[in-house]
Amino acid sequence: MSDKPTIWRALDRKAMAVAEFTLRQQRKRLSTWVVMGVGFLAMAVLTMFYIDSMMRDYDAIDNDGDSSDFDMDGYPNGQEVLYGTDILDPDSHPGLLNPSIPPDDPSKWINEDDFDIESLASGSYGYDDDGDCRTEEKTASQQDTNSNNIPCDVRITEPSYYNGFSTAILSDRGVDEDPDDDAYAKESIHRAFVLALGKFGFVFLIGIFVPLFMATGLVRDEMTSGTMHYMLSKPIARSEVFLYRILGFLGLAWPYMTGMVVLAALVTGFFGPSDGFFRFSDLGVWMAVLLASLLAVLVYAMLFCLLGVLWKHGIILALPFAAWELGMILTTLGAPDAAILRFSVIGWAMNIVDAGAALAWTDTSLLIELGLWGGGSNNAEPLTGSLALQIFASDSGLGLTPLVTIVVSICVMLFQAATCWFVGGALFKSKEID
Amino acid sequence: MMPDPTQQGKAETKEWKPDVDMPVVYFQGVSKSYGRIHALSNITLGLSGGVTGILGMNGAGKSTMFKLIMGKLKPSAGEVRLFGTDPWKNPAPYVKVGFVPEHEKMHDWMTALDFVSTFARLHGMTRDHAEKEAIRVLDFVGLSDVVNKQIGQFSKGMRQRTKIAHALVNDPELIILDEPLQGCDPLARTTVMNVIRELGKMGRTVLVSSHILSEIERITEQIIILHQGKLVALGNLHAIRERLDEIPHTIRIVGDDARSLAKDILDHPAVFGLSFPSNTELLIQTYHFGSLHSELPKLIVKNGHRVTLIDNPDDDLESLLGHLTGGGA
What we know:
The complex is a heterodimer. Chain A is 57% helix and 2% strand. Chain A is mainly α. Chain A folds into 3 domains: 7-58 and 182-429, no CATH class; 67-108, no CATH class; 116-176, no CATH class. Chain A has a 3-stranded antiparallel sheet with strand order 1-2-3, covered by helices on one side. In chain A, helix 1 packs across helix 7 and helix 7 (238-271) runs antiparallel to helix 13. Chain A starts with 6 loop residues before the first helix and ends in a 5-residue tail after the last helix. By secondary structure, chain B is α/β, with parallel strands linked by helices. Chain B contains 10 helices and 13 strands. In chain B, the strands form 3 sheets. A 6-stranded mixed sheet of chain B has the order 5-6-7-3-8-9, sandwiched between helices. A 4-stranded antiparallel sheet of chain B has the order 11-12-10-13, sandwiched between helices. In chain B, helix 2 runs parallel beside helix 4 (156-168), helix 3 (127-140) crosses helix 4 (156-168) and helix 4 packs parallel to helix 5 (186-201). Chain A binds chain B through residues 2-3, 5-10, 12-18, 20-21, 24-25, 28, 225-227, 229-238, 432-434, and chain B through 1, 3-5, 7, 9-14, 16, 67, 70-74, 91-95, 97-99, 101, 103-107, 109-110, 118-119, 121-126, 130, 166-167.
């Protein structure tokens, strides 16, 4: 096979020649480096905000109010409840018990009953860390206020008609009611940032603007300057020129995108909250982000190059399209299953990111619900970070399993790219070149 | 099929077979118009072998004709055939064609070797083969000592020769040169003319356009004259030359001392008038352009004059066109 002269071999020689030429041409241009440098700086600034949010301490809030001491006897309410003394009677406190119990520092009763997402047992969650549910004072029915026949746990109900089609969190009174605000904030802000940077930074901003500035003129610039004559007086079809020019652009844009995503994965991996030195659990999300952004660059490059061939001011056509895509990416946040998203590029790219996130972080929606629930006491505010995560995390919207969603979305985006190539090549072929 | 990243194998594109019964270039009633402007009207001709000069003023349709041959433009009417194939629909015949466009613009960031070898690879050559061929053709046009210099640093003549080299790299049967002498200094002009004559001797079909009659005259005898998109003359230059000799001509000489030069030239029987637009410039009026033009160099050398330029101002072609179209110059 290797020595047989074939049309394929001649074709890939032409492909290599044009792609290599295009790559070198782009490298020689100052504008290439300006666009890429601005992209890098923008991502770096966003990452600065992230690093700052990981380095700071989030105020520990006493979500259940049991660090206060209503009867001023020196024993926080939580400690009095634990030992069964009266929280309103200064003459009743654990110090009068035998043996006598010394009073706790009130700060021990802040963040003392954290969420226990991982203690998953037969569909129930939560563990009463501070013992105010498991206390012997309580009867069996008092220990099971959410009536799932498991004492002192948190019950999570599936979305249904009765709770407005959202997940409801029902805890037995006193379970997981004072979460660790700092840990929650860091975990959810971290996830929110990974999704925000992946979706808006890489797939949207870099994914659109690098092709916008670098691919719109791939064919058009040469047509305008007259240098296209050299290429078109060779035995090569115009749709081939179109395709190979894109290949050359991808030869620069794809490694750039990959480098940026890898860098972001490293920075967030080292700065993000984790038990070890590095958060390996995010890698699946970053891989999905990389896949989505590479495909987005491919489709946008084909499309913008087409628009450039269509009209010499193709960038004017590309800008409204970029605005449309911005609208679509915002739509994916609120209504990921909207039918209109099927008419966008970014809707499919977001499917890939969301499906990747669903594979890598199985508990994101639970984390959001718990944060919004905030411990279940009546005056509990949503925890810091829960709203941010709620904004940037969404379902993949196709109603399929994550893996199938990824495969389907890849196929659709490749089809979009192929269509743009086909149309762009045909348009180019019909253009007279002066 | 796997790509060939090493680019070292031996390969040919699928053989494209030209139509042997057809001339290399064939126009049948071809017109090209842009809105109301007729760039070419109803051209019918067939060209095969030898060097053909395409003469015409700016805007006469020379470049349009070439762009139709090269499939850059679609004819408004009629048929264009290149080796028997419609070039607008099929780029396959370009395997045997080399094209030197008139555009000044080149890829200035490339070296001459890069430029020629990159485009050679579009013929399906391997990288090594393309470089070898590029060096061969750059040597052929006399640029062998600057192959690794950037085109941006080249003079106009060197750029023009690089463009010619790029067109010759596939050893084409048909070479089209659009105004190859424009902007060339006298040395480059001579080199380019020699290259074109050489190609003609090698049996290639060469089409070369110019708006300066004397340039074409030094290259070939077979000419086509276009005027306002119409074919006004086609054939041997000698036949046209006889008619040309009957109309008055101007020769312009630029040298150190125009007046002393004029004294020597005034004696020549063909000269009927002299004028001096400036101290270094001499305009000679003659009825026998051919004979004077061939004797001028001898006269100048014999009397030791220093001359920097001998030129036939463009109105040569204008007056010829006026003569051919019967309107007078």
